[in-house]
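Hey team,

Filing this mostly as a record. A colleague (T.K.) asked me to run one chain through the structure pipeline before their review meeting, and I want the input and output archived in the tracker in case anyone asks later how it was produced. No errors, nothing strange. Just documentation.

Input sequence:
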Amino acid sequence: MSGVIRFEEMRAILAGRNRFYSARLRSGVSFAELPFTTKQELVDDQAEHPPFGTNLTYPVEKYVRIHQTSGTAGKPILWLDTKESWEWWLRCWEQVFTGAGVSEADRVYVAFSFGPFIGFWAAFEAAQRMGAMVISGGGQSTEQRLRALFDREATVLVCTPTYALRLADTAGQHGLDLSRGPVRITVHAGEPGASIPETRRRIQESFGAKTFDHAGMTEVGAYGFECEAQSGLHINEDEFIAEIIDPETLAPAGEGNKGELVLTNLGRVGMPLIRYRTGDLAVISREQCTCGRRWARLIGGVLGRADDMITIRGINVFPSAVENIVRRHPQIVEFAIEVHREREMRELRLKVEVDGVADGIVERLGEDIHNDLRVRATIERVEIGSLPRFELKARR
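Output structure:
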């Protein structure tokens, strides 16, 4: 069944029931003519109609789970799921695992504290529903999680890419060789690092495993996954309608052009999102993948967020591009990006933690940034352990 047909079925359910969307879904208006939904609208709606807002299709009693967005880009949004929409979440995450080659024979270690963020709960339960053995890493230190990976002989690791590198760094400090451990697959969520080539390379080399990216949002769902070909993030078009627009004109960006990803979820009828502007930048391809799937792909994964872009002396720079350069240097164990204004001009500054002597590392990193991005950066070497570590989304 095509996405548009499923959307029309959802429209019929929402009409007259969902206060947030009823007025927008007037008859005679095609899908492409519907207005976009923005995050600010959702924030304002919940502020005006606390605690859950008006984007509810059913009475509150029908909902069985509540989660919230991370709040890294502003005030967190609360999100509710019915029993049916939670089952939909698990199906979407099963697609993530299937694409990565995870099977019921695997032991899946979920290295997260189980707070109010939805993705890790969904990953845990989806792996369990597939028949895999699932191991919780909640409430444990990094050292305890490393020990559990070996002791439980976990074959699949689920965590943010930043935390995977932290595990690798901590393992090195304790003389553990992760590449000789049991993990064969790493699946990453929470941030786009696993599609950044140098970050992926470092994770794969550290664990001796194959690394897979995934894309999802608390308010939208687990919409993107990698297959064995690893030629971009597949959009699960059985469950989502994906569009790419020019963030300035709001016109379709066209295949092969960078633009803002807009998503409509089709299985979360109780609290849906229609033509939601994600703020994520991507390039879409509709060519058939070598894996045989015909679903659209995001080439290079999520390339960054529109609101993350910084302009340095007329050149647009994304944190993901800086990270790709930093990760080429294995001596750099952590970094932070800062932007300072000097005489009405923005200046890029980096703080880096360097393991060992590594003579000339600051100079080489500065040269790489200038050669690749055509901007100059002021780089400061700081003490090991002085920069913050992250388990969830890294805030660079």
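Quick notes for T.K.: The CA atoms of residues 110 and 128 lie 11 Å apart. The radius of gyration is 22 Å.
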